[in-house]
Amino acid sequence: MTATHSPTAAASGANATERFKSDKFAGVEGTPPERVSLLAREVLEAVHATIRKHKVTYEEYNALKSWLISVGEDGEWPLFLDVWVEHVVEDVATEHRQGNKGTIEGPYYVPDAPEQGARGSIPTRDNEPGTALTWTGQVTSTTGAALGGAKVELWHADADGLYSQFAPDIPEWNLRGTFTTDDEGRFEIHTVRPAPYQIPTDGACGKLIAAAGWHAWRPAHLHVKVSAPGHELLTAQLYFPGDEHNDDDIASAVKPELLLAPQPSGDGETIEYNFVLDPAL
Ligand code: MBD
Ligand code: FE
Questions:
Q1: Which ligand does the CA of 83 lie closest to?
Q2: What EC number(s) does its UniProt record assign (predicted)?
């Protein structure tokens, strides 16, 4: 890897910011003024209360100002919000579900990954590094019905902890694929085990983590979106037992029901994990 092609916080942040703008910006138009006023006022009141409680100084206020400016300059608003805020939004959004509740999406989803059928391999490079992983599963409804034709979109980091389209020099759709369940709702996916993910240390989020003396790690994880007509979209992540950061994920996105149970098999591992979707409201 040459110096000009090393992953940088600013480059991956810029990509995540562009991604968010093209997929999700339209949604912000319709928020009613009463709701904006209520939420903005309460968040600001919480900030004011913290300032009074801890007698925040002008030096600290200016440190905050300069840090907030750098979050934008580094394109790290998607990263910051998804790491430290999204998990609560996700909890609230999925509270009512009888099927899988899931967890946060994070900043690195890209829609329309290549279709691979019900059984196949996620796109990889030749000799993609990492332990081979064969994942079998089934998608059903809370009604008990098998959901044929359901979409399982899978995306994850490579064995270096890097995501295609956000880190340099990785083929566009590497480790990103869409699978469609068979008539019984079943699928079989061949991929490799991802590595744990470290928040970039050279950007604004990394600066906050270092200044606060926190660690910068998420445990290794597989991201999925599972969807079927007439059902709520499920966004989830699956985790591997024994990862040292399952208990202190910087993004607070691990739940016990999202832990896999890999079994050794040949020169790789197999996993079984099923999804239950709630009918749409
Ligand atoms: C990730 O890979 C991720 O999944 C989240 C939630 C935040 C930062 C990086
Ligand atoms: Fe991730």
A1: 1
A2: 1.13.11.1
Do you know the residue count of the chain?
A: 281
Q: Is the pLDDT of residue 251 over 90?
A: yes
Top mutation candidate among 19, 158, 199, 218 for ligand 1, by most atoms within 8 Å of CB: 218
β-partners of residue 188 are 119, 136
User: Cβ neighbours of residue 179 under 8 Å, at least 6 residues apart?
Assistant: 115, 116, 117, 118, 120, 151, 152, 153, 154, 187, 189
Pocket test for ligand 1, best of 19, 77, 81, 82 (most atoms within 8 A of CB): 82
Confidence of residue 31 (pLDDT cuts 50, 70, 90): confident
Domains of the chain: 9-277 (2.60.130.10)
Of 237, 248, 212, nearest to 107 by C-alpha is 237
Q: What is the pTM of this model?
A: 0.95
Residue 262's alpha-carbon distances to 33, 212, 224, in angstroms, are: 49, 35, 17
